[in-house]
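Supplementary Methods. Inverse-folding protocol.

Structures were first reduced to a discrete structure-token string of length 165. This string, shown here, constituted the complete conditioning input.
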């Protein structure tokens, strides 16, 4: 039997504020935002066939470079080579130290507006990028970097990717 995949990315922001009587507003007020994308087995819109997870410690000033298009440079969570056509989601959690997640200098992943632009994260901070059910074409612009930024200590992070080939 061939391997199959399914995935879900839920980004949820839930808030409740209870106003005091001086505001003139009555009742709890909510500022909720939620988006869920689900994918089933396959390589088209609303489909995935590879999931990647890496737990990594990175040295002082070091950079880990990722290329979703380089066949075999990444393996999914069951050891199959990844040669992505679409990225569906990217999640990075900084578990220790300080890092930045950026588009690469050349052929940077299209969700970053330019090389070296991205997100700075410290321990406990994360970024989750949902790229929609159809995903983001990575057949040309497929690279991103994760760099230790404190310059004084190692850092650690967890990386998750959902892709279709």
């Amino acid at each position: 039997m061939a391997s199959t995949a399914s995935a879900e990315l839920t980004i949820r922001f839930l808030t409740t504020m209870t106003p005091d009587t001086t505001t003139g507003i009555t009742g709890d007020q909510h500022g909720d935002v939620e988006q869920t994308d689900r994918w089933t087995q396959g390589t088209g819109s609303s489909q995935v066939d590879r999931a990647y997870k890496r737990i990594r410690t990175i040295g002082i000033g070091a950079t880990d470079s990722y290329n979703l298009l380089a066949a075999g440079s990444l393996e999914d969570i069951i050891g199959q080579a990844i040669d992505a056509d679409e990225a569906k989601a990217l999640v990075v959690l900084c578990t220790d130290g300080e890092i930045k997640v950026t588009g690469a200098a050349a052929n940077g992943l299209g969700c970053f507006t330019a090389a070296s632009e991205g997100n700075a994260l410290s321990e406990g901070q994360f970024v989750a990028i949902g790229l929609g059910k159809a995903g983001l074409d990575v057949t040309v612009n497929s690279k991103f970097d994760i760099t230790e930024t404190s310059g004084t200590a190692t850092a650690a992070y967890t990386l998750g990717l959902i892709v279709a080939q």
